[in-house]
Write a structure and sequence with these properties.
Blueprint (H helix, E strand, L loop, with lengths): L2 H4 L2 H54 L2 E2 L9 E2 L3 H7 L2 H34 L5 H13 L2 H12 L6 H5 L10 H28 L4 H9 L4 H9 L4 H15 L4 H6 L9 H11 L3 H26 L3 H4 L4
Antiparallel strand pairs: 1-2
Helix pairs in contact: 2-14, 3-14, 4-5, 4-8, 4-11, 5-8, 6-8, 8-11, 11-14, 13-14
């Protein structure tokens, strides 16, 4: 029998009125927060739609045509044929596999290292904390192209310092897939780990200290506090960090373009779109390539949100 059934009619009625009032207050609060959110984010959202909406629609429109920039007079409507050509091409699926490999490896490594950096920045002495955070964040402040060139010259067979350092003067890192993709991933990890650590640090700062203290009093070890207290209370920050970094890593282009130019089997989806559009001047196929890449990124975003299922309201302490 339910609790309400056991209560006297008058108390049951008062309890129901109190519940309705609480739900109404909560609903009004939620509507107020939604209105405030749209007021704050609405202008930026409108500008973003205007700036990004037209190129996306134009790319989709161009993808429906057989259109080569060197022969614009031969442009003709082909419908979804370009998509069929790409999806039946082994080069697309090879690029998809390479992009996925780079994304998964770099994001996982960056999450672990970034978490460690965030813990160090959080627990560092107040006197050295600003200097420590500055040093950790320096790689992220460097332009990606500059960073890629630095890693390319470091591993170059003729001018690099890595080969003499490891005693392998004849090792050409960019001649085969395994070594080339390793250097690409190392450069990505070095460059963007600070971004992950910065987001993780914001999540660590929101973990209530009284929960940590209660766990210490109960005799929990550092690892137990990490897995049972710290991580469960910062799932929202972890999801945001992993999602943002995954979307960014899946669009990798600069490092591949500078280090290998897509050779040695290192072509990614973004580089494939560049090759079709800029190198071959195939506007129709290149646009279809870009649209497929965009749709893949959207699916990744939706998948992350569905899989993580983070309760942002609970993360804000609303209940």
């Amino acid at each position: 029998m339910s609790t309400l059934a056991k209560q006297p009619p008058q108390e049951q009625a008062e309890s129901e009125r109190a519940n309705r009032t609480a739900r109404r207050v909560k609903s009004e609060r939620a509507r107020g927060e939604n209105r405030l959110g749209w007021m704050l984010a609405g202008p930026a959202f409108a500008v973003m739609v205007l700036v990004t909406g037209y190129p996306i629609l134009q790319a989709f429109f161009d993808s429906l045509f057989s259109y080569r920039l060197t022969d614009p007079a031969a442009r003709r409507f082909v419908g979804l044929t370009n998509y069929g050509v790409i999806l039946t091409d082994p080069v697309w699926w090879r690029a998809f596999w390479v992009t996925t490999l780079i994304t998964v490896v770099t994001v996982l490594v960056e999450l672990v290292i970034g978490f460690a950096f965030a813990l160090v920045m959080l627990k560092a002495l107040r006197a050295v904390r600003p200097a420590l955070r500055t040093v950790i964040l320096i790689p992220y402040a460097i332009i990606t192209v500059v960073s890629a060139f630095a890693w390319f010259f470091a591993f170059n067979i003729n001018s690099g310092f890595v080969n003499p350092l490891i005693g392998q003067p004849d090792l050409n890192w960019f001649a085969q897939f395994s070594t080339a993709v390793t250097v690409i991933m190392l450069s990505e990890i070095w460059k963007t780990t600070p971004f992950i650590s910065l987001l993780i640090l914001s999540g660590l700062a929101q973990v209530p200290e009284d929960l940590q203290e209660a766990a210490r009093v109960d005799g929990a070890t550092w690892w137990q506090r990490l897995w049972k207290v710290t991580i469960p209370n910062m799932k929202a920050a972890i999801m945001v960090a992993v999602l943002f970094r995954t979307l960014d890593a899946f669009r990798i282009f600069d490092n591949v373009f500078i280090m290998t130019g897509g050779s040695a089997g290192t072509e990614t989806l973004s580089f494939g779109a560049y090759r079709q559009t800029i190198s071959r001047l195939e506007i129709g196929l290149g646009s279809a390539y870009s649209v497929l890449l965009f749709l893949t990124v959207v699916l990744i975003c939706v998948g992350f949100i569905k899989i993580f299922k983070v309760d942002l309201g609970a993360a804000r302490g609303e209940r």
